[in-house]
Amino acid sequence: MNPRILERALAPIRRRLAGMISRAVVQSLNSEGGLQLASLSMLAGEQKADIEHFEPYGFTAKAHAGAEAAVAFVGGDRSHGIVISVADRRFRFVGLEDGEAALYDDQGQVVHIKRNGLELHGNNVLISTAGVLRLDGDKVEIHGRTYLQTDVAGLGDRRTHEGGSVWQDDTYTTGATVNSTEHGIDPPALPTEHPEG
Fold it and tell me: Domain range holding 154?
């Protein structure tokens, strides 16, 4: 076969293969639907809108404009793209050791799965459940730099550090009157409703 004819025949296939994977910059993400839709700026000024972003099951994130994306075009068809990954080097959590993992955001909040345990750093942390919340450990430490407060249905107490060696202890009720009964209990026999026992 004539090499020029073969070259002409293979040229469309070569172009499709070359265009199957591309880098892009995220312009915006719409996270309201079943899959996020990305608007992207690609090489040579090519713009793409409403490109589906495939995320791992159980995880979702909405990156800022300016993040980078890897886009695959099914069969090399530039009209059928999917975002397979979004990364943002501006905010990536660094310094992981081999085998570690982290979940992070642009504010420096991190869930860090370390070699020797798990660390959670956040501006504010809320743990909420309709079931049983249980802290269980060989040694349990709860530290409050300013105050420590507990509350059971509006009956509570608060210990506040006021500086130096001065603390203030307060108790409060938000109900009408307190009607409580004290029972002596054997601590090892404290009941639990947690599914782990």
Answer: 144-175
